[in-house]
Amino acid sequence: MKLISFKTENRDKIGVLKGKEITEINSSMIDAIKSPNIDKFESLGTYNIGEVNVGVPTLPSKIVCVGLNYTDHAKELDMEIPEEPIIFIKPSTAAIGHCDNIIYPKSSSQVDYEAELGIVISKETHRVSAKDALDHIGGYTVINDVTARDLQRKDIQWTRAKSFDTFAPIGPCIETELDPMHQNISLRLNSKLKQNSNTKNMIFDVYELVEFISDIMTLKAGDMISTGTPPGVGSMNVGEIVEVEVEGIGVLKNFLKSENK
Length: 261
Known about the structure:
The protein is mainly beta and 261 residues long. It folds into two domains: 2-53, no CATH class; 62-258, Fumarylacetoacetate hydrolase, domain 2. The chain has five helices and 20 strands. The chain has helices at residues 29-34, 71-77, 149-154, 159-162, 206-214; strands spanning 2-8, 11-18, 21-25, 43-48, 53-54, 62-67, 86-91, 95-96, 101-104, 111-113, 115-121, 137-144, 147-148, 168-175, 184-189, 192-198, 224-226, 234-236, 241-246, 250-258. The strands form three sheets. Strands 1, 2, 3, 4, 5, 6, 7, 8, 11, 12, 14 and 17 form a twelve-stranded mixed sheet that branches. It has a five-stranded mixed sheet with strand order 9-20-19-15-16, with no helix packed on it. A three-stranded antiparallel sheet has the order 13-10-18. A hairpin with a 2-residue loop joins strand 1 and strand 2. The radius of gyration is 17 Å and the shape is globular.
C-alpha cells in the first residue's frame, strides 16, 4: 500500500495512492503506517495526483544517513568494505517533497545526487535487534542524499555539506509492503541514466541498520534512515531535473534552482 501526503484546498491531507488516484483518509501518516488495517480509516474523497501538491511523506525529527553501503559503490571507489556502518545525520529542515526545488547554494560549486532507499520508522525504537526490526518499520520511501561535494572534501566532518535546506528530497510516497532486499534502484539526470543497481548489493541490510543505529540513538516515529547510494554518483547543475526511482515505490522528481532565484 502506498501512502502519500498532499495538499489541496489549502489543507494538508493523507491518502492512499493507487496508480494516479489518491483516496484521502482521516488519519495522520504516523497512525496510517502503524495500522495493520487501512480499511478502518474513513475515506474522504478522491483526487488525481496531477491536481494536488505532493508533500514530504512525513516530517522526520532526523534523517540518519549511511555512507558507503553498496558493494558495487565500494568497488567503484576502490575502497575497502567497512566493518560497521558509517553514519551521519541530516536535519529535518533539509527535507522537501516530490517536484519541489533543490536550491543550489552560493557557497558550493559542486552539488551531487545520491539515490537511496529510505526506511520509515513507525514507533519509538531503541536497542532493537535485527530480527525484531521489521516490527519497527512502517514502510519505505525514496531519498536523494544531496551533497555539496566540494564542501565535504573541505571539511573534516560532513554536516555542512549534507545539511543545506532542500538537500533531502523524500517521496513521493511511503510503501508499506515492500521486500527491501531485492529492489532495483536508479537515478536519471535530464532523463539520462546515471545510477543503476539493486538493494541486494547493500553491505548492511535494512534490518542490520535499524539494529546498529537504534543501539546509538532512539529513533522516533516518522524518523528515516537513508540506506546509502549505489555507484554512479555525480554532479547536478542549475536547470537540471533529477529523478530517483526505487522499484515498488515510485519516482522522486526534483528540479535544480539557483539560490538567487
